[in-house]
Model the fold of this input.
Amino acid sequence: MRLVFLIVVIAVSMTVLAALQATTPPYAMLTGPIRTEGRQGETVSGTVFSAQIRQVQKAKTLAWDQFGRAVERQSSGTWVIVSAELQAMRETMPVRGATIIGTSGRLYHQSQRAQAAPNVLSAKTVQPGLPTTGIYIFEMPKEETRDMTLLLSRQYGPQLEDELAITLEQNGIVLREKMELGKNGI
Done:
């Protein structure tokens, strides 16, 4: 009788543990970003910063002046240039983590090839009460640009920090052959 009772207790314990393991969210989800969602054109606010996407442009070639000489970057895909206004709520901070989720769900980080372009937001610091404007530049395949969501955060892979997810509008985005970037963005 004792042996049967012990087997039943072990079986019930294993069932309860299996159920707990199956229903417990993974660690990455528990400590992941605190996401706030919005759309292009509206101000999307988290607890530490807010962003408003003003304009999205696509181009085959980017051009700008750097130290008095012309610089051009061509792409076999498409350059996606996102013009944004950022504002910090309480403290001075960078907003370095910018990623686009493409049509297929793949993630595209900011392009390192266009890091020296003028007015890039990842090189700026955002201060409370002072709106900061600039651009983020991505290089991605053309077919990935039909349905895009921009993720913004202090750094890539934020844990227990704000992450803004902004759906980018497709209406009015025209693919240009060449885009000139100036000190005032696009």
In short: Residues 33-180 form a domain with the Immunoglobulin-like fold (CATH 2.60.40.1240). The chain has one domain: 33-180. The two ends are 81 Å apart (CA to CA). The mean pLDDT is 91.
